[in-house]
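User: Fold this, then the next.

Assistant: Folding the first:
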Amino acid sequence: MNTYTRVFSQTCLDVNKAILAGFSDLTDEDFKSRTHLFHGRYENLYLDADRIPGLALIVDTAMQEAARILGMDVAQLASGFWLNAMHPGDVTTAHTHDDDDELLSCVYYIRVPAEADRSGQLIITQNDGEEVIITPREGMFVFFSPQTLHEVTKNETDEMRLSMAFNFGKKR
């Protein structure tokens, strides 16, 4: 696999408004857990895919693409996902996802402010140290190796950006 792979899905884009509306209706009790408290916000918000209409479609599409990229059957894969709400001023610091036995990581963009290039760009550091800057786009998946160092720049807009992140591994 290249350092990263971008995939756009019109089908997923079509459910983003319903997902955003469902996200807006959530209460603290709806989340299974929240982790990674940095700069005053929890970066990872965990909930069941059936809690918001449309999330299951995003999960299924991500699984299909991950299987294709990895050259595996979907039945061999397991996945975990979380939501990431980046409010004005929020950043995500540089990190990797290679804590366990992940094979592939991914981000999917649900809501991106009109000034996408100011809403928090994904920076992927390649093996040679060169940085690739990816401007978020609603309906876009970005797949990359869990060992890839990545971060998200400051959301300099007045609006929230909502994304969904994934890790994929072999089913046990």
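Now the next one, as you asked:
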Amino acid sequence: MRPNENGELVYSHYSMEQFAGTLTAIPFRVDRTVVDQTGLDGAFDFRLKIADNAAEMKHGLERGDGPSAFEVLGQVGLKLRPRKDEVPVLVIDSADRVPTEN
């Protein structure tokens, strides 16, 4: 994913599973796990309009007040639906730092 000068985020060769994984990060910040249930296989190229230009997009991202994922996903015919489902979780009880030689 990369921003462009037109205020868009450009996704090149993204699967729906990969894209779903990006929705919990900036700029979308969906506060739940997003699971792809589109049934769409393959990789896609698409653009999401975030602002009118690059400067507005940058300021919106810095302030954290850009459009919501719910607003933006409609541009490519997708929508988020909240539901309860089982999601695999990895729990790490502890971790020790192992020194390495230089």
